[in-house]
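In this section we walk through a basic example: taking a raw amino acid sequence and producing a predicted 3D structure, encoded as discrete structure tokens. The instruction is simple. Fold the sequence below.
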Amino acid sequence: MKMKFNLLVFLAAIVMLSVSCKQKSKPNENLAPNVHKVTAEEVLQSSNYTYLRVSEDNKETWIAISRREAEVGKSYYYEPNIEMTDFVSKELKRTFKTIVFVDKFSDQPITNVKASMDNTSKGNQPAVAKEGIKVEPAEGGITIAELYAKKDSYAGKTVKIRGEVVKFSAEIMGRNWVHLQDGTNSNGAFDITITTNDVTKIGDVVTFEGSVTLKKDFGAGYFYEVIVENGKMLPQM
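The resulting token sequence is shown next.
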């Protein structure tokens, strides 16, 4: 009888310990899926990006985010976006064996599940129309709506497109990425991505000339129904 009592006490202690452990870990249970909590071990700044060497469970990783202030020793949260190998930063004159580019990064826990779903861990993010944009097409050029509406006829051809820069990402996969909008829309398509070696910034109104490619798959979820590649930024008249 005494042995049974001792066994029950032992089992009760295990249950209480388990509940206690779960309660202690509860703050982490609310993190959105695929979120990493890390500690910044090293911070490198460039013109467009902040590079961080971070640690998580005794494992170190390099991540890159849009330029912002970050502190060594501070905890951060992020969702991975795209991982690249042998990535070369020309500005830092450094090659990263592996590095993860991150869109969602915060010094506060990322707990919003909907926000996590809206910012998928891989692939290009859905474009958001910027209000108030109205850019006239360049001479001899086409609008973004015309490109999407007649994409099959433009495939493989060189086009000229003028618009406002709504997003600029530098030095990804050996090229810069420009998102243009001109205020036109074709069945919900209003944003065109252009790959280029030229540099611009958000808010600039620019004209690009480049080759139209359909159904372009760069891997890691980066798939484009229509994209303009090898874009050359033309002088503004």
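Looking at the output, two observations stand out. Helices lie at 2-29, 113-118, 144-149, 151-154. The domain at 144-234 is CATH 2.40.50.140 (OB fold (Dihydrolipoamide Acetyltransferase, E2P)). In the next section we compare this with other chains.
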